[in-house]
Each structure stands twice: as C-alpha cells, then as structure tokens.
Write a structure and sequence with these properties.
By secondary structure, the chain is mainly alpha-helical. It has 4 helices and no strands. It has a single domain, classed as Helix Hairpins, CATH 1.10.287.3610.
C-alpha cells in the first residue's frame, strides 16, 4: 500500500490529481514540452485525418505522443538530478545526457514513422 493509505477510487483520484500537477508543472517550467504540445496540436488531428484506418492512425498519433512521454520522463530525471545538488558531477551529467538522447531518438522516430506510413 502507498504512503497515502488510500485504496480504490480515492487512490485513482489522487493519482489523477498528481498527474495533472505534473502536466501543469511541465507546461509551466519546460519550454521543450510546450513546443512539443504545440506541435502535437497540429500533428494529432493530421494523424487522424491522414491515417487510413485505426492502425495507421495509431502509429502516427502514437509517435507524437511518445515524444511528449519521453520529454516528461527526461524532465523528471533532470529534476531529481538538480534536487541532489547543483555541483557538477560526472554521473549527473551522464544521466541528463542520456535523458536528452532518449528525447532525440523519439523525435527522430516521428518523421520515420510518418514517412513509412504515408509514403510506404
């Protein structure tokens, strides 16, 4: 059982509130996340319009949403590293670089999937 002691529906409600705070904080504090959300506002309707059938739509839409998910995880890693301390440490830099690399790979995946689906 979690620290809150909540179970069932109250726990789900609390989890939803925490998730909403996380999204709000990412929007407020992370410029990259804001840019990705703005791109998603264009790309998600395009995915639903251009994809022929559910599988193509899911691939196009999923690639866009994946970028935002990876960005949120990268931001979480950066927040934890920054919380540990402001001094430079090799492992802190490595953690941040690896998180950034994950975002970059997810960004590269979007045009590859879109090209394969739409041109293939």
């Amino acid at each position: 059982m979690g620290k809150s002691g909540l179970r069932g529906i109250p726990r789900l409600i609390q989890a939803f509130v925490c998730s909403a705070k996380g999204l709000s904080g990412a929007w407020r504090d992370e410029e990259a996340f804001r840019l990705e959300v703005l791109a998603a506002l264009v790309l998600i309707p395009a995915a639903l319009w251009l994809g022929e059938g559910g599988v193509e739509q899911a691939l196009l839409l999923g690639s866009v949403v994946l970028v935002m998910i990876v960005e949120l995880l990268n931001s979480a890693v950066e927040a934890v590293v920054d919380r540990v301390g402001p001094e430079h440490h090799e492992l802190s830099g490595k953690a941040k670089d690896i998180g950034s690399a994950a975002v970059l790979l997810s960004l590269f995946l979007v045009p590859v999937i879109w090209a394969l689906v739409l041109l293939g």
